[in-house]
Amino acid sequence: MDQQDPRIADLGFARVDIDRAARTGDPEVVYGAGKTPDQVVAILRALHERHPERAVLATRLAPEALDVVSRALPDAAIDLVARAVTLGPLPTPTGTVPVVAAGTSDAPVAAEAALTVAVHGAGVDRIDDVGVAGLHRLLGVRDRLEAADCLVVVAGMEGALPSVVGGLTGVPMVAVPTSVGYGASLGGVAALLAMLNSCAPGVTVVNIDNGYGAGVHAARVARQSVPR
Amino acid sequence: MDQQDPRIADLGFARVDIDRAARTGDPEVVYGAGKTPDQVVAILRALHERHPERAVLATRLAPEALDVVSRALPDAAIDLVARAVTLGPLPTPTGTVPVVAAGTSDAPVAAEAALTVAVHGAGVDRIDDVGVAGLHRLLGVRDRLEAADCLVVVAGMEGALPSVVGGLTGVPMVAVPTSVGYGASLGGVAALLAMLNSCAPGVTVVNIDNGYGAGVHAARVARQSVPR
Amino acid sequence: MDQQDPRIADLGFARVDIDRAARTGDPEVVYGAGKTPDQVVAILRALHERHPERAVLATRLAPEALDVVSRALPDAAIDLVARAVTLGPLPTPTGTVPVVAAGTSDAPVAAEAALTVAVHGAGVDRIDDVGVAGLHRLLGVRDRLEAADCLVVVAGMEGALPSVVGGLTGVPMVAVPTSVGYGASLGGVAALLAMLNSCAPGVTVVNIDNGYGAGVHAARVARQSVPR
Amino acid sequence: MDQQDPRIADLGFARVDIDRAARTGDPEVVYGAGKTPDQVVAILRALHERHPERAVLATRLAPEALDVVSRALPDAAIDLVARAVTLGPLPTPTGTVPVVAAGTSDAPVAAEAALTVAVHGAGVDRIDDVGVAGLHRLLGVRDRLEAADCLVVVAGMEGALPSVVGGLTGVPMVAVPTSVGYGASLGGVAALLAMLNSCAPGVTVVNIDNGYGAGVHAARVARQSVPR
Amino acid sequence: MDQQDPRIADLGFARVDIDRAARTGDPEVVYGAGKTPDQVVAILRALHERHPERAVLATRLAPEALDVVSRALPDAAIDLVARAVTLGPLPTPTGTVPVVAAGTSDAPVAAEAALTVAVHGAGVDRIDDVGVAGLHRLLGVRDRLEAADCLVVVAGMEGALPSVVGGLTGVPMVAVPTSVGYGASLGGVAALLAMLNSCAPGVTVVNIDNGYGAGVHAARVARQSVPR
Amino acid sequence: MDQQDPRIADLGFARVDIDRAARTGDPEVVYGAGKTPDQVVAILRALHERHPERAVLATRLAPEALDVVSRALPDAAIDLVARAVTLGPLPTPTGTVPVVAAGTSDAPVAAEAALTVAVHGAGVDRIDDVGVAGLHRLLGVRDRLEAADCLVVVAGMEGALPSVVGGLTGVPMVAVPTSVGYGASLGGVAALLAMLNSCAPGVTVVNIDNGYGAGVHAARVARQSVPR
Amino acid sequence: MDQQDPRIADLGFARVDIDRAARTGDPEVVYGAGKTPDQVVAILRALHERHPERAVLATRLAPEALDVVSRALPDAAIDLVARAVTLGPLPTPTGTVPVVAAGTSDAPVAAEAALTVAVHGAGVDRIDDVGVAGLHRLLGVRDRLEAADCLVVVAGMEGALPSVVGGLTGVPMVAVPTSVGYGASLGGVAALLAMLNSCAPGVTVVNIDNGYGAGVHAARVARQSVPR
Amino acid sequence: MDQQDPRIADLGFARVDIDRAARTGDPEVVYGAGKTPDQVVAILRALHERHPERAVLATRLAPEALDVVSRALPDAAIDLVARAVTLGPLPTPTGTVPVVAAGTSDAPVAAEAALTVAVHGAGVDRIDDVGVAGLHRLLGVRDRLEAADCLVVVAGMEGALPSVVGGLTGVPMVAVPTSVGYGASLGGVAALLAMLNSCAPGVTVVNIDNGYGAGVHAARVARQSVPR
C-alpha cells in the first residue's frame, strides 16, 4: 500500500514527496501558488521535521501567506521581494552563480532565482539594472561574469540581455524571461521568444517568471563544477 | 469619369497612381509580388515614360522577373541581393542613412532598405554583420551611427540589435525584423515582438522583411534634416 | 567600481542612468509602472536635482502615484489624461509634431505622446476625433498635416487611420496602436497588425499604447528638421 | 433508406445535395478544392442535368481542373481570374452589388465574389484599385456606392477599406479580407481582425479569401430589396 | 474652421458627429465603454436635442452608468439585460429580424442586437435557447426563420448554430459569436472562427459580443426589403 | 542489457516495441510519417513475423511508400484513401463503431479511423456526407447512431457535427477535427476549438486529422461493451 | 406551439430541456457559470420535481451560489472542492472509473470529474498526486488502472500524465488539461496541446478544466461495459 | 578600422568572427542555413586555416551542401543524420553528456546535439527510442542518466520525456523540443510549451530542433564538472 510508503508524507490534503533529496540531491520545495497559508505552514513544518538539518523553501507566496508563515514559523526567513521563505539552515555555498537582471521591475524574479540558488547550495552574486540600452554598466561587470560557474540572466520586455551576455562569455547560462512589459510583450511571451531565438550559442531558457527553475539548474551546475 | 483622371495610368490589368510624387515627394514604386514579369515591365515602362527624369523602383521580384526585366529594359539597374530594379537616374543624395544589419542572412532585407533609401534621395552607409553577440564590431562603428540623420537597423532571430544601438545613440531609428530564424522565431514574429518591446526609447518598427518601408521613412527624415 | 560611476545615481532600490542626455540628447524619463509612488518621487527628485534646468518626465503613473507626486512635488505639472508628470521647465519647441487621434477613447495615449513630444523639445499640434469613418474631418485638417515635421497617428480598433493619413501626405509618420476595442481586437493586437501592414509607404509603428515611444521618435525628427 | 432520397444525387465518391434551391432559393455550387478534375466534371454534369435551366457554379478550381472542365464541358463559361466556371444560363439580375477591391492583387477574390453575385441573381458593378492610400479614386465613385443594394468590399494587408467605405454610405456591406500581404499579415489574419474591429457600424465579415460567401450574402440581400 | 462645422457637436471632451443620419440613414449611437456616466448623459442629451423626433441609442453602459442615466434622463428607456438605453421615440418597424440565441448566457448580446434592430427601424422576433444540442426546438421555429428579412444568430462556445440555421433557410444572416465559454473558447475566438468557417453559404460574421453591429446590418437589410 | 530485451526488436535504425499487445491488448502499429518506404517494409515484416496471427497496421504512408509496400509485401491490404496498409488477418469484430463524416473532403481521415477500428477488433459502419448544413441526411441515420457502442465523428471547417450528433444520442463519442478548410480554419485549429467547446456533454476530442487515435479509443470501448 | 412542448420547462429566464434523459440516458445538469444563485436554485428545484427519483447536478457554482443553494435546498449535497451540488439520490454505480490527478492544484477539476461520474451512474476511484516527476507512486497503482472500465486523467502544467498512463495500460482514457500553471502554460493551453499530441494511442481530450465532460464520457463507457 | 581587425576574417560575402574561442572557449561554428554550398566551403576552409589544431563545425547543411563539402574538403567528416560536418581533429572528451531521444523521428536533432557535444569537448552517450509511452526502456538506463554531467533530452509531439527524466535524476538537463508531429503540434510549439512548463525542477529549454544550442550548453557544463 502506497499510504505507508516512507517516501510520502500524507497530510490529508496532499501527499508530499519527502524523498526528493535522495533522488536528486536537492532540498524540499513548496510551490505556494494555489495553496492556503495554513497548508503552506503545515507542509513547511512537516518537511522541516523530517530534515531539520537543511533548509526547506516555499515560493510564490501571496502577502497574506507570507504574513501567516512569519507568525506561525518565527524561525522562517522571509524574503519579501522574492515572495518566498526558507526554514532551516542554508547549506554552505559551493561555486558562484551571478544573477544578472536587466531592470528594476525584474527584481522579484531575480530575488526568487537568487534565493533558490542559495537554498540549493551555491553562492550568489547579484548584478542588477544592467539593461542592454546602457552597455557601459554591463561591460563594467564583465569580470564577475567570467568568474562564474553558471549564469542566471533575467530580463523582460524585449529579452535581449542574454544574447549580449552570451557574446561576452562562454559560461553556462540560463535565461529567465519576465512578464515585465505591456501590449505586445504578451505577458512575457515576447521576451521568451527572444531568448529561445538568441544568436548567442548555448543560451537555455525557462518559463516566464520562473526564477526558481533557473536557480535549481544553475545551482546544480555550480555545485558540481571544479573549484576555480 | 475617373478613367480620364490624369492622376491614373490605366494599363488594363491595373490602374497605376502616377500622382504620388506630387502628393508625397517620393518616387513611384512597383510592388512586384503577385505580378507577372510582363506586368512589371509594363508598369515600369509606363511610369518611366511619365517621369524619365527620376528613378522608378520595383521590389520583391522573383528571379524570373529579374531576368525578364533585365532583358526587356536594358537600362534598368538590377540588384540581385535586394531582388529589386531601378529605372532612371537616382537622385542626388541628401543626408545619410546607415543601414545596420545583424547577420549575413539579413542581407536581402538590408539591400532592399539601402536601395530604397537611395531611390528616395538620401545617402546610404552599409554596416553589416554587427550582431549583438559580438559587441566589439558594433562599438567600433559608433561614430558612423552618431553621424547619421536616421538609422535603419535590420535583425532576425531575437531582434536585439535595435535595443543595443538605441542605447548608444539618440539618432532616429527604424527597426526591421527579418524572417531569419527557425522554430520559435515563428517566421520573424519573435524579432518583431522584441523590437516593439525595445527598452531603448524611440525605436519604431516596420513589418517583417519590410526593408522598403523602413527605407522610405528613413529617407524622408534624412531629406528634411538640417545638414551637419 | 561601478558604484562610483558618475553616470549612475544609486538610490538603493534602483540605479538610475543620469547620463542619457549626454548620449542621446533626450531628457531623463521615469517609467512609473511597477514603481511605488514614493519611488517615483525619489527618482524625480534625484533627476531634477542633477539637471534643474530641464524637465524630467514620469509616465504610466497610477492615480495614487499622481496624487502622491502632486503633494510631494508641488512644482510638478500633472497631466491627468496622460497619467504623467513633468518637473522642471519645458524646452523651447523646435519644429511641429501633430498628434492625430482617431477616437475619444484614444485620448490617454495621444496625451502621453503629446506631452512626450513637448518634453523632448518639439512643438505639438493636437488633432482629435478624426476617425476614418468620418473622412470630412480628416480632410479638413490636411494643411496642418502637410505643415508638420513628423506625425504621430494614434488609433485603436481596426487601426486604419495611419493608412489614410499616409495616403494624404509624405511627412514622416509614427503610428501608435491602442488597446481600445474588445473581442477580436485582442487587446490592441488587431490595430498593431493593421498598422504594420499599412499599404501607405513609410509608416513606422510602436508598441500598443506606447505614446511615449512615438513621441520620442517624432520629437527627435522634428528637432533636427530644417525649419520651414 | 436515404440512398433513395430524391434530395441526394449519389455519385459514388460523393452524395450531392440537389435540394438546396428548394430550401434556400440559391443555385447549386461545387466547391472544387480537394476534388479531382474528373470529380468536378461529374458533379457539374449531374447538377446541370437536374436543373438545365439555371447555372451551376464551381469555385476554387486549380489550373488543370479549369483545363479539364473546359474540354469536357464546352458549354461551360470559364473565369480564369476567379478560378471558377459556370454551366447553364445566368439568371436575370435583380438589384445591384458593387464589388469594391483595394488592390490589383485582390482581383482573384473580387472576381470570385462578382461571379457568385451574378450566378445568384444580382447585378454586379466592379470597382477596382480604390485602396485607402489614394482616397480620391474612392471618393470619385461615391455615387455608385450609394446606388447599391449591398456592397462587397475586398481588401488585404491592413484591411482598412471597409471602414472608409462604411463611413461614406449606409448601404449594407460584406467585407472580405484577402491573404494578400506578407510577414505580420499572417496569411490574411491582420485584414480579418481589422474588418471585425471596424469602427464603421454594420460591417459584416466572411472568411479570408471567401469571395463566394460574400457574394451569396450580397446577392440574397439585393434580390429581396425594393427596386430603386 | 472645422470647429464651426455644423456636422459636429463640440462637447469639449468629444466632438460628436451629428451628421450620420444624413449620410447613412441610421440613428445616432453612443458607444458607452470608456466614457464616464456624465459624459454619456451629456452626449445623449446633445444628440436628443438636435433630433428629438428619433431615438438615440447608448450601448455598453456599466451598471453605474445605467443608474446615472436613468436618474438624469427620466424619459430614457433602460434595457438592463442589453446594458443599453434609448432616448426618444422608436421608429415604426419595417420588415422583420429574428434574433436567434443558442443559450441563456447569450442573452445580453441578443438583447443588444434586438434593441439595435428596433432603434434602426426594423421589427424584432426573439427566439431563445435553441442550441444545436437540442434540435427539436430549432426545427419547431423554422417558419419564423423563413418569414424573416434578415437573421441575427447569436452563439458562444462552439458557435455551431449559424451553420445549422444556414442549412435550414436562405434568408440573409449575420452571425454573432459571444464570449460565453471557458478554457479553449479563448474568450469567444473559438466561436468566431467556427462562424467564419461555416459550411453554410452566405453566413457573415461580426466581432465577438457585437450585437450592435449585427443589429445595424440586419435592420438596414430589413428596411430596404420588399414587404412580404 | 536492454539490447536483449525480448520486448524490443532492434532493426538497427529503430528499436521496435513488440510488447504492446501484452500491455494494452492492441495490435502493433507503424506510424509511417518520416520513415522511408524500406523502413516501413522492414518494420511491417518484423512485426508480422512475431505475430502472424494478427494484423499489423501502417498509417500515414506517402504514395511511393504505398507503392513500395504493395510490391514488397503482396499479402498486404492497401487502403489508398486512408493511405494505410494492413498485413495479416483482421480480428473478428466485436461491437459497432459508426464513423460519421461531414464532407467528402474528410474522407481520408474517416478512412484511417475506420481501418483502425477494424484492425483493433470492432465493427465499422461508415456514414458519409452528413454535414450540419443538410440536417435531413443526419436525422435519417439516427437509428444507426443509437445502435452504436462508440461513435467517431469527423469534421473540418467549423467542426459543428459532433455537437449536433451529441444532441441526438448519448452514445460515447470521439470527435476528430480535420484540416479541411482555408483562411481562418488555421489548418484545422478552428474545428479543433469548436469540438473542445461543444455544448453537447461528453464529446471527447483527438488531434487534427488523427483518425487513428479516434479509432483506437472507439474500438477499445466497443470491444469491452455489453453486446446488444 | 413550442411553449407547450412537454420536453421544455419554461422558467421565464430560461427554457430548460427536461428531455435529455430520454434522449441520452444521462441525468439533468445545470451549468452554473453566468447564472445567479436564485436561478440555480430555481432550475434545480424544477428539474428535481420532474424527476425526484434521480440526482440532478449543478456545476461551476461560485461560493455565494454554493451558500445560497445549501440554505434554499437543505437536501442538496454540497461538494466544496468541486464547486458543485447534487440534489436527489445518486444512482447505483456500474463499472469503475479511476480519476487520476497529477497534482494537488488539480483537485477541483478532479473532484468535478469524480462527482460527474458518480451522478452519471459509474463507480469512482480517486488516485491523487501521481505526477510524472515521481513515477514510483504511479507505478504503485498500476493494478487499479488496469482494473478500470475507463480512465479520467487530470493534469496541468506540461500535461504529461496521460502519455505515461497510456503507456501502462490499454483501458480507454479521457485526458483533462487544467489551467494550473503560469506564464507559458497560457491558461492551460500548453497542457491541452500536450495531451492532443500524446504519443500514447487512443488518448482523447476535453476542454481545459472540463472535469464534467470527461466524467460524462467515462461514465457512459463504464455503464455499458461488460462487468469484470 | 575594423576591416583590419584581427578578430574578423573578411570573406567578402561575410565577416567571420574568428575570435570566439578566445572569448568563450568554444570552437568556431558555421550555421549553414541560408548559405550556398560554396560559401560553406569557403568559411570552413578559412576557419580551419586559422586553427588547424581544432575541429570546426558546420550545421544545418542541405543534402547538396553536404555533397559539395565532402568533395571539396575530403578531410571533412560528414554526419548525414545530423546534416552536419566537422573539419579538423575532435578534442579529447571531458565528462559525459547522454543525449536521450524519445522517438526514431527525433534522430536528426539528437545527432546534431551529439556531434555538437563532441566538437565542444565532452563525451557523448546516445540513448534512443525511450519515449514515455514505454517506461521500461527508460527505467532500464537509469544508471547511465545518473552517471552524467549534463543531460540533453530530445522529444517531439507532447514533449513529456524531460519531465519523466527530471523526476528520475537531479543531473542538470537541457530539453530540446522537436518539430516532430502534426496538427496541434503546431510545428513543435506544443512540445516547447510542455517543456517550459515541466513540473520537474531545473529543466531548461532551447529552441525547437536546436540540438546545437543544447549541445553547447551541455558540453560547457560537462567540461567544467569535477571528474567522477
In terms of topology, how is this protein built?
The structure is a homooctamer of 228-residue chains.
Chain A: E1 8-10, E2 15-17, H1 20-24, E3 29-31, H2 37-50, E4 56-59, H3 63-72, E5 77-79, E6 84-87, E7 96-101, H4 107-119, E8 123-127, H5 135-140, H6 142-146, E9 151-155, H7 161-168, E10 173-177, H8 189-196, E11 203-205, H9 211-223
Parallel strand pairs in A: 3-4, 7-8, 7-9, 9-10, 10-11
Antiparallel strand pairs in A: 1-2, 4-6, 5-6
Account of the protein in words:
Chains A, B, C, D, E, F, G, H: InterPro entries: P2CMN_synthase_LarB (IPR039476), PurE_dom (IPR000031). Chains A, B, C, D, E, F, G, H: This is Nickel pincer cofactor biosynthesis protein LarB. The first copy, chain A, is an alpha/beta fold. Chain A is built from nine helices and eleven strands. The first copy, chain A, has a five-stranded parallel β-sheet with strand order 8-7-9-10-11, sandwiched between helices. A four-stranded mixed β-sheet of chain A has the order 3-4-6-5, sandwiched between helices. In chain A, helix 2 (37-50) packs across helix 3 (63-72). The model of chain A has no long low-confidence stretch (mean pLDDT 92). Chains A and H meet through strand 11 and helix 9 of A and strand 11 and helix 9 of H.
